[in-house]
Write a structure and sequence with these properties.
By secondary structure, the protein is an alpha+beta fold. The relative contact order is 0.28. A three-stranded antiparallel beta sheet has the order 2-1-3. The chain has a domain of 57 residues. Helices cover 20% and strands 20% of the residues. A hairpin with a 4-residue loop joins strand 1 and strand 2.
């Protein structure tokens, strides 16, 4: 099971990196399941570096805005995981 997910929405031109354990991510299902997450794309990533690479690729393709905040404010995936 992946440790991270990148959720991105082409209509809003933004992406967020979440830990899979984050309540907003819910293992790639989203906080509200399919009700609000319809139209959003969930990309699994094994590592934070892999998740960042997904975000960079989306920026290069013009699917999301460059320079936008991409880390979830709840789970803070950029910080080391505390046990």
């Amino acid at each position: 099971m992946p440790d991270y997910y990148v959720v991105w929405d082409a209509r809003q031109h933004r992406a967020r990196i979440h830990r899979s354990s984050c309540g907003a991510c819910n293992d790639g299902k989203g906080m509200h399941r399919a009700v609000i997450t319809a139209g959003r794309n969930w990309e699994p990533a094994e590592t934070y570096a892999e998740a960042r690479a997904i975000v960079r690729n989306l920026e290069i393709k013009g699917l999301i805005k460059k320079g936008e905040r991409t880390n979830c404010g709840l789970c803070q995936p950029e910080l080391p995981q505390s046990n």
